[in-house]
Design brief:
Largest interface: A-B, 32 and 31 residues
CATH class of chain A: Alpha Beta
CATH architecture of chain A: Alpha-Beta Barrel
CATH class of the largest domain in chain B: Alpha Beta
Number of domains of chain B: 2
Structural class of chain A: alpha/beta
CATH superfamily of the largest domain in chain B: Nucleotide-binding domain of ferredoxin-NADP reductase (FNR) module
Helix content of chain B: 10-25%
Helix content of chain A: 25-40%
Oligomer: heterodimer
Order of helices and strands of chain B: EEEEEHEEHEHEEHEHEEEE
CATH architecture of the largest domain in chain B: 3-Layer(aba) Sandwich
Distance between the termini of chain B: 32 Å
Low-confidence stretches of chain B: none
Strand order of the largest sheet of chain A: 3-4-7-8-9-10-15-16
Structural class of chain B: alpha/beta
Mean pLDDT of chain A: 96
Chain lengths: 302, 258
């Protein structure tokens, strides 16, 4: 039994396995399949200051070894989260992390400030990388200046652990990561989805209501891995890796490339219990190789 | 209801037509409770093109035999692969998912169950539940042609069966909503599952007559548990997940242009 706990600044994870925002609901949806307390953490649905209805159906298209989505940050807003969701999830004995999104530095900050008042939420993940909304989202994540403006505004009002989720739809993701670090981000997580398209050739129409969507699943894993490797070599803050992770091998690849922790997303749709398998198999791999502490493998690839 | 993630074993496969099969599944342990209208998410193994699970409605549950029946129409790669499974194979299932049809509150209610194509599937199990609760089920089942009508012998066990075919090869010619039954009889409740234009017509009929009516939807979905928000339908409560808040909806709550 290897030591599995890792730290993201002040955030203590009992193991490196988190669930990715938008793929695990508020955790409760998976309670029949996963002992939630045994996860390193749960990153809940993207939350915005005001409620959002999201985009029209169809919002999803299956692609080879992956899927496109254009959900568009459907959520009932931060007040609803604080009043109706938080009471249901605050007793879950793992790190409950809220993914925060917005359309201006000011409303990102206002949303983060509300979440900061919740005792049992030790961290937020700032979503500057949603490809499916017109107002804000990825617009902030594709330039260093845009990323810096949001991180700076949120950092002023948010004293707990601040993770920034990066977009892969950029020329140089390491530059964006450096800009976030310079403004006081405690960690960066990557990658959000890659923008893509799919077409119904019979109808001669896009399969998604807003034409484009974000690609996730095993199809994106090699791209994500390379970006995690680049970012881990560009910043000193801990990096959280995600993108197509479906098993312990994938998770260990990300950690060897420099990720301190990992998030599992789309794989939850294929196997709702996948997170527990990853933790178990990661442990078994470490034992088999005589590694006593998972931290020994972080960034072993120079 | 508690959800399970189980490997179920295929006992038998019945071929109903060139494109329809019924998989009869079982488990060494008693199958969990399931209500009519709920569905199962099946894992499709060993395919590079079918990545997501396939949601399939519960066709029938035989508690005594510990069997779960799934009626599958082979329409794409995933359902074709599921249709070609053989007795002895196992298939990983997440179930039971979603909410079922509403059982009538009043005793001896007259319930009309309207199904089209493979959409007849959940109505069989609901018909059985209605009979057991001493309600009166009437089935109105539509298909393109006589050869596409499914499980008529089984529906006959649980109520009267009326049929329409688009080519007139069996029953009345036309769509289910053209059937003379709708003009000659009155029902207390309607449940429908099938192509959306058919369900919209059924909803229109029910709303005109002031009859409580539920429709079972099949929007494209990923997770099946209300996490990904992909399978949404517009309702009076905003976008709701077909997988979690549905798949059965009161048609009054749907923003359909009836």
């Amino acid at each position: 039994m290897a030591r599995l706990n890792v730290d993201i600044k002040d955030l203590r994870l009992k193991n490196p396995v988190l669930t990715a925002s938008g793929t695990f609901g508020y955790g409760l949806e998976f309670a029949d399949f996963v002992p939630l307390d045994e996860l390193g953490g749960i990153i809940v649905k993207g939350t915005t200051l005001a409620p959002r209805e999201g985009n029209d159906y169809p919002r999803m298209a299956e692609t080879p070894m992956g899927m496109l989505n254009c959900v568009g940050l459907q959520n009932k807003g931060v007040d609803f989260f604080c009043e109706s969701i938080y009471p249901q999830i605050k007793e879950i004995r793992t790190n409950m992390i809220v993914n925060v999104s917005g359309s201006s530095p000011e409303n990102y900050a206002a949303c983060a400030e509300r979440i900061a008042t919740l005792d049992r939420i030790p961290a937020i993940e700032l979503n500057i990388s949603c490809p499916n909304v017109k107002d804000g989202g990825m617009a902030f994540g594709v330039t260093c200046q845009g990323a810096a403006s949001v991180v700076s505004a949120v950092r002023k009002v948010y004293p707990k652990t601040l993770i920034v989720k990066l977009s892969p739809n950029v020329t140089n993701i390491a530059d964006i990561a450096r800009a976030c670090e310079a403004e006081g981000a405690d960690s960066v997580s990557l990658i959000n989805t890659l923008m893509g398209m799919a077409v119904d050739i019979e109808k001669r129409q896009p399969l998604l209501s807003i034409r484009t969507g974000g690609l996730s699943g095993p199809a994106v894993k090699p791209v994500a891995l390379r970006m995690v490797y680049d970012v881990a070599h560009a910043v000193k803050i801990p990096v959280i890796g995600l993108g197509g992770i479906s098993n312990a091998t994938d998770a260990l690849e990300f950690m060897m490339c420099g990720a301190t922790a990992i998030e599992i997303g789309t794989a939850n749709f294929i196997d709702p219990s996948v997170t527990m398998k990853v933790i178990r198999e990661m442990n078994a791999w470490l034992d088999r190789h005589g590694v006593r502490d998972v931290r020994e493998i972080i960034g072993v690839i120079a | 209801m508690k959800k399970y993630n189980l490997d179920l074993k295929i006992l038998s496969v019945e071929r109903l037509s060139a494109t329809h099969v019924v998989l009869k599944l079982t488990s060494p342990d008693p199958l969990p409770p399931m209500v009519p209208g709920q569905f199962v998410e099946l894992l499709v193994d060993h395919s590079s093109t079918t990545f997501l699970r396939r949601p399939i409605s519960i066709n029938f549950v035989d508690i005594a035999a510990n069997e779960l029946w799934l009626l599958i129409a082979a329409v794409g790669d995933g359902t074709r692969r599921l249709s070609s499974l053989l007795p002895g194979d196992t298939v990983n299932c997440i179930f039971p998912l979603g909410n079922g049809f509403t059982m009538p509150a009043n005793p001896s209610s007259r319930v009309l169950l309207v199904g089209g194509g493979v959409g007849v599937a959940p109505l069989l199990y609901f018909g059985k539940a209605l009979q057991e609760a001493h309600h009166h089920a009437t089935f109105l089942l539509g298909a393109r042609s006589a050869k596409d009508l499914l499980e008529l012998d089984l529906f006959n066990k649980y109520g009267r069966v009326y049929v329409t075919t688009e080519d007139g090869s069996q029953g009345e010619k036309g769509f289910v909503t053209d059937h003379s039954l709708l003009q000659s009889e009155r029902f207390d409740q309607i449940s429908t599952c099938g192509p959306k234009p058919m369900m919209v017509s059924v909803a229109r009929y029910a709303l005109e007559k002031g009859i409580f009516c539920e429709a079972s939807l099949e929007n494209k979905m990923a997770c099946g548990v209300g996490a990904c928000l992909c399978c949404v339908e517009k309702t009076v409560e905003g976008n709701q997940c077909v997988c979690k808040e549905g798949p059965v909806f009161n048609v009054k709550d749907l923003l359909w242009h009836v």
